Amino acid sequence: MTHRLRLGILIAPPLLLLLVAIVIPLAGMILFSVRADSFDPNEGYSLASYQEFFTDPRYLRLMGQTGWTAFIVAAVAVLLAYPVAYFLAFHSGRWKLTLIALMIVPAWTSYLLRILSWKVMLGSGGLLSSLVNGIGIDASSLPLLLYSPQAVVITLVYVWIPFAGLPIFVTLDRLDKRLLEAANDLGASPLRAFWRVTLPISLPGVLVSFIYVFIPTFGDWVTPLLVGGAQGGILYGNIIQSQYTRALNWPFGSVLSIALLVLILVLLLLYGRITRVLTGENGS
Amino acid sequence: MKGLRKLLVLALLVFAVVGGTFVFAQEDQLMVFDWAGYDLEGFWAPFAEANPDVAVEFTYITEDSEAFARMASGLETDVLHPCWHQPYIEAGLVQPIDTARLTNWESIPEVLTTKGQGEDGEQYFVPHVWGYSSMIVRTDLVEEVPDSWEDLWDPQYAGRIGIYDSGEVAVAIAATVLGLEDPFNPSEEEQALIEEKLIELRPQLLAFLVDPAEMEQLLISGDMWIMAGGWNSTFMAVSRALAESDPDAAVEYVAPVEGRFGWLCGYGMSANAQNVAMAYAYIDALISPESQAYLTNTFGFGGANPESLSMVDPETVELLQLDQTDILNDTIFLPDVSDELLEAYATIWDNVKLAP
Q1: Are B205 and A229 within 8 A, CB to CB?
Q2: Please, are residues A129 and A114 in contact by the beta-carbon 8 Å criterion?
Q3: Is the dihedral of CA A104, A106, A109, A115 positive or negative?
Q4: Under CATH, domain A66-282 is a member of which superfamily?
Q5: Burial level of B142, CB count in 10 A (0-12/13-18/19+)?
Q6: pLDDT band for position B315 (50/70/90)?
Q7: Which residue of B has its CA nearest to A246?
Q8: Closest partner CB to A233 (pick from B68, B69, B207)
Q9: Considering only CA atoms, which of B276, B283, B275, B282 is closest in space to residue B47?
Q10: In angstroms, rounded to a whole number, what is the distance separating the alpha carbons of residues A98 and B206?
C-alpha cells in the first residue's frame, strides 16, 4: 500500500502536468473546432469549419506547399548533419565530447536570436553581401536574399542541424566496429563497407533525425514571419496564427490545427512501420 | 520527524512571505496595453513622479484587429490604447470615463473628443494621438518618386515595397485606388474587387511589416524603397538616422494625390480594470502638455492637447502640418470598423496572403 502511495505521489505531478498542458487544451481545441462562434457558446455547434477546410483548395494547397518546404528542410539538414555525425562517431577520438558540445552550443541560444542573426547575415549590407562584395561582385545587383522562400529554408536548416546530428551520431556511435573489420577482412572497399554496413544500420537514426526536423518545421510560423517576407512568409502555421489572433475565427483555427495534428500522426505511424521493416531486414 | 515538521513550518513561512509580497506588489501595479514606444518614460514621467511606488507593466499592441482580438479573448489590463473605438464600446470591453476626474480634459478640442463617445453619449476613450498612414519613400533609390497610391502597382518598384500588415489599411489603399464611392463601406461585390486588386499587389511586396524597428531598418538599409502605410514616427526615425549616417541618402514623407490616411488613438479603461484610480492618473498624465510635447518631439505625431504646441520643435510641426486646423479636411481619417467589415477585412487580407 505504501509502495503504491509512493508511486502515486511520484507519478501525480507529471500526470497532472500532462492533463493540464496537453489533454485539456487538446480537448478544448476539438470542442472549439465544432463550435459555431468563437466566443458565444449559445450559438451552438456546427461542422461548417471542417467543410470550409475540405472544400477550399487553398488550405490544402498551402498544407502541401508547407509539407514540401518541411521536407526540403529536413532532407538538407539530415544530409548536412550526416557527415558531421560520422566524423564525430569514427574519427574524433578524444575530442569527441568537446566536439559534440560545440555542435550543440548554438542550440543553447534562444531560437529567436538565432533566427534574427540570420536576418543580419542575409540582409543587404550583411555578412553575405559583404562577402560577395569582397570577391568583386556588386551585391546590390543581385536579388535580395532576405525575405524569400530560400531565406526560410536556409534559416530553418541552420536551426535544426544540431537536432538532426544527434540521433545519427548515437546510432553510428553504437555501431559494432567489428562489423566493419569483418567487411574489411572479406575484401570490401571502405566505400562498399559504408554502403552495405554502416548506412543501413544508421538508417533508423537518419529517419529519427528527419522526423525531428520535419515535424516542428511543418508547424513553424516564426521563421517565415521573420525572414520570409511577402513572398516566402506565409506557411501553414502563419494562417493558423492569423485565424486565432486576427480573424478571431477560433473554430477554423482549431480545424487547421487538428488537420496538421492528424497529418503528423499519420506520418508518425508510417515512420513506425518503416523503422520496423528496416530493423527487421538488418536482422539486429 | 521533528526535522520534517521544522522544514514544513519553514516552507510555509517562506511561502507566506513570498506570497504576501506578491499580493502587496500587485496592489501597486498598473497594467497598460499599448503600442511599442509609448512605454518610454518620457510619456508618463508626470505619472511616475506623482506615483513613484507604482510599477507600470506593459503589454504590446502590434495591430488593431489583433489588439481587439486579445481584449475580446480576455486580456487583463487597466488601460488600453487602441485606434479603434466603437468595437470596444459595442462589445462592452471598456467602461465610461468620468472626464471630471481628468485635469487636462478641458484642453482637448471637441472635434476629437466626439470620436471617443459611445452611442449612449458617454465618453469611453480619451483622444491622445493622431498621425498619418502614408508613403515613406527613399527618393534617392527610386527612379521616379511615386505620388499616388496607384503607383504601388507600378512594376518599377517590384519587390521593394513594404506594407503595414493590417487588413484595414490595405483595404483602404485598394478601395481608394479603385475609386469606390464609399471606400470605407464596400459592398460584397466591391470587397471582391478589393481582394483581386490586393492579390495583384502581392508580387510587388517585399514584406508585410508590423514592427516599427524593422520598417526603419529596411528603409535605412535601402532594401525597401517604399513603406506603404508608414507613420510619422518611422519617417522621423529614418530621416534622423540617414542624416547622420549617409549624407547622399534622401527620404521623403510623400502625401499621395488621393490624400493621406489619418488615424486617432485614444486611451480607454478596461471594463474590468483593477486599478481605476491609477488608471485615471495615468491617462491624465498622458494628455498633459508636457507628455504631449514629448510625443510630438519624439515621434512626430500630433497630440490631442493643443497646449503642447508651444513646447514642440516648430520644424516638426511645419513638416507634418500638425498645427493646421483644417487637417481633418485634407486627411482621410480611417473610420471605426463595424463588426461585419472587421471580419470581411481580415478575410480579404488572409486571402491575399493565401493566394498562390
Answers
A1: yes
A2: no
A3: negative
A4: MetI-like (1.10.3720.10)
A5: middle
A6: confident
A7: B66
A8: B207
A9: B282
A10: 42
The answer to whether residue B312 neighbours chain A at the CB level (below 8 Å) is: no
Nearest residue to B350 (alpha-carbon basis) of B128, B198, B139:
B198
**CA-closest candidate to residue B135, choices B259, B241, B246:** B259
pTM of the model: 0.80
For chain A, say whether B207 makes contact (Cβ under 8 Å). Answer: yes
Q: Percent of chain B beyond pLDDT 70? A: 90
Mean pLDDT of B10-32: 65
pLDDT band at A283, cuts 50/70/90?
Answer: very low
Could you report the per-residue pLDDT of A124-160, keeping only the tens digit for each?
777 777 787 788 777 666 677 888 899 999 999 999 9
Question: What own/partner pairs with CB < 8 Å and gap ≥ 24 does B328-333 have?
Answer: B328/B111, B328/B262, B330/B259, B331/B132, B331/B259, B331/B260, B331/B261, B331/B262, B332/B172, B332/B176, B332/B258, B332/B259, B332/B260, B332/B261, B332/B262, B333/B261, B333/B262, B333/B263, B333/B264
CB atoms A233 and B208 under 8 Å? yes
SS (H, E, C) chain B: CHHHHHHHHHHHHHHHHHHHHHHHHHHCEEEEEEECCCCCHHHHHHHHHHCCCCEEEEEEECCHHHHHHHHHCCCCCCEECCCCCHHHHHCCCECCCCHHHCCCHHHCCHHHHHHHECCCCCECEEEEEEEEEEEEECCCCCCCCCCCHHHHHCHHHCCCEEEECCHHHHHHHHHHHHCCCCCCCCCHHHHHHHHHHHHHHHHHEEEEECCHHHHHHHHHHCCCCEEEEECHHHHHHHHHHHHHHCCCCCCEEECCCCCEEEEEEEEEEECCCCCHHHHHHHHHHHCCHHHHHHHHHHHCCEECCHHHHHHCCHHHHHHHCCCCCCHHHHEEECCCCCHHHHHHHHHHHHHHHHCC
For residue range B243-278, list pLDDT tens digits in order: 999 889 999 999 999 988 999 999 999 999 999 999
CA B161 – CA B201 distance, rounded (Å): 10
What is the sign, positive or negative, of the torsion defined by CA atoms of A152, A157, A163, A168? positive
> Which chain A residue shows the shortest CA-CA distance from B344?
A247
B348 touches chain A (CB under 8 A): no
Which residues in chain A have their CB less than 8 angstroms from residue B199's CB? none
Which residue in the set B73, B159, B346 is minimally distant from A247, CB to CB? B346
The pLDDT of residue A262: 94
B92 touches chain A (CB under 8 A): no
Shortest CB distance from B354 goes to which of A58, A144, A244? Answer: A58
Among chain A, residues having any CB pair with chain B shorter than 8 Å are 39, 58-59, 61-62, 123-125, 143-144, 146-147, 229-231, 233-234, 238-239, 242-248
For chain A, say whether B170 makes contact (Cβ under 8 Å).
no
Contact at CB, A242 and B159, closer than 8 angstroms: no
Is the reported ipTM for this assembly greater than 0.85? no
Q: Nearest residue on chain A to B203, judged by CA atoms?
A: A231
